[in-house]
Amino acid sequence: MPMKKVLVINANPKANSLCQSLADQYALVAADNHSVEQINIGDLHFEISLNEGYDKVTDLEPDLVDFQKKILDSEHIVIVSPVWWGTIPAKLKGAIDRAFLPGFSFKYVTGKTMQEKLLKGRTSELIITMDSPPFWYKYIQGNAIYKQLKQAILDFSGIKNISSTYFGPVIHSDRHKRQAWLKKVAELARRVR
Fold first, then answer.
1. In a 3-state reduction of DSSP, which class is residue 117?
2. Which of 46, 91, 129, 172 has its CA 20 to 30 A from that of 66?
């Protein structure tokens, strides 16, 4: 099996979280067969808001330059995110707003309706934690995090999502349940091809 460049993103900005443990587990196991980089969104320092949208170029802070570099260097991107108010934490959304810019992740082409996808050739997988039951979140509440990440961000940029795994409810989980989730994440990391 050829070695892949894997980027694991912990989208939970909290210093200690289940997402951090899951991201660490994935990175540790994937490193047995692949080159792994890890980003903890909570450790990045940048202005979260794209105040002028795309109307004005705003210089990227060093952490966002590094974030872009790690995205470009990767072949497989793993996003481990909690569901907060139905979707991703604001700091991950801010990093995407600021770093996934025209000319980096996509490009509008004059005379064409669809954008050019600049991050093609990469795959991704989503690992999602939540306090509600996954069935309820996906089928009753509409699975907004999947639609936002997979359809509106990854697909738009050319990154092909190959799997999505949901863990919950976290709020009432015990040590045994969390150990089972860590074991499942290890299995996912071993499947990277």
1. strand
2. 129
Domain coverage including residue 150: 5-190
> What is the DSSP pairing of strand 106-107 with strand 116-117?
antiparallel
User: What is the distance between the alpha carbons of residues 77 and 37, in angstroms, rounded to a whole number?
Assistant: 10
Q: Residue 6: which pLDDT band, with cuts at 50, 70 and 90? A: very high
Write down the pLDDT at residue 59: 93
Read off the CATH number of the domain in which 76 is found: 3.40.50.360
Say how many domains are in the chain: 1
Residue 9 neighbours by CB under 8 Å, 6+ apart: 23, 38, 39, 41, 77, 78, 79, 80, 92
